[in-house]
């Protein structure tokens, strides 16, 4: 079980993490991470990282959804100390998470967190890299004769 101070409960916190945070998608889950620019809360204390979970009916019935939530809570609890202080994490389970075992969920969660906490997202290109297509209107990239 997650400690009480590490749980997301308010709708606004979920919305902040999802709308303003970074996202990493995996086959079984999507992780949203919002790192606070000023982690100091009221009184100058540093709040712990907090996590919340979204498991819809698309994952399965009530028993399956609760099992997925328990597994995800356990996995996130073990990884809370790797998250920046004051950060908000929302883990959204995708439909395949209901049939996945604990190890598969752990791999997807670890990969998503590494991507969010590590370097740049995969879609970013390093500075100075030219990935543009030739914009020359007279240029025929297929090389066909006219």
Tell me, rounded to a whole number, the average pLDDT. Answer: 82
N to C succession of SSEs? HEEEHEH
Strand order of the largest sheet: 1-2-4-3
Count of helical regions: 3
Helix-and-strand structural type: alpha+beta
Shape: globular
Please identify the top-level CATH class of the domain at 23-35 and 48-117: Alpha Beta
The Rg value, from CA coordinates, equals 20 Å
Low-confidence spans: 120-129, 131-135
The biggest sheet amounts to: 4 strands, mixed
**Could you say what the CATH architecture of the domain at 23-35 and 48-117 is?**
2-Layer Sandwich
Count every beta strand, where a strand is a DSSP E run of 2 or more residues.
4
Family: Belongs to the RnpA family.
Subunit structure: Consists of a catalytic RNA component (M1 or rnpB) and a protein subunit.
Pfam families: Ribonuclease_P (PF00825)
EC number: 3.1.26.5
Describe the secondary-structure layout:
Layout: H1 11-20, E1 22-25, E2 29-34, E3 50-55, H2 62-79, E4 88-93, H3 102-117
Parallel strand pairs: 3-4
Antiparallel strand pairs: 1-2, 2-4
Helix pairs in contact: 2-3
How would you describe the overall organization of this protein?
- The chain is of the alpha+beta class and 146 residues long.
- It has a domain of 83 residues: Ribosomal Protein S5, domain 2, CATH 3.30.230.10.
- It contains 3 helices and 4 strands.
- It has a 4-stranded mixed beta sheet with strand order 1-2-4-3, with helices on both faces.
- Strand 1 and strand 2 form a beta hairpin.
- Helix 2 packs across helix 3.
- The radius of gyration is 20 Å and the shape is globular.
- The termini are far apart.
């Amino acid at each position: 079980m997650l400690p009480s101070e590490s749980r997301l409960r308010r709708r606004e916190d979920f919305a902040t993490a999802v709308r303003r945070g970074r996202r990493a998608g995996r086959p079984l889950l999507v992780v949203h991470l919002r790192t606070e620019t000023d982690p100091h809360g009221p009184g100058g204390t540093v709040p712990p990282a907090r996590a919340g979970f979204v498991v819809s009916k698309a994952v399965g019935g009530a028993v399956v959804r609760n099992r997925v939530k328990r597994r995800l809570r356990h996995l996130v609890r073990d990884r809370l100390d790797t998250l920046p202080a004051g950060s908000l994490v929302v883990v959204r389970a995708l439909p395949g998470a209901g049939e996945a075992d604990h190890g598969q969920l752990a791999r997807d969660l670890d990969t998503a967190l590494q991507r969010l906490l590590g370097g740049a997202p995969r879609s970013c290109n390093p500075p100075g890299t030219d990935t543009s297509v030739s914009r020359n209107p007279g240029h025929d990239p297929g090389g066909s004769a006219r």
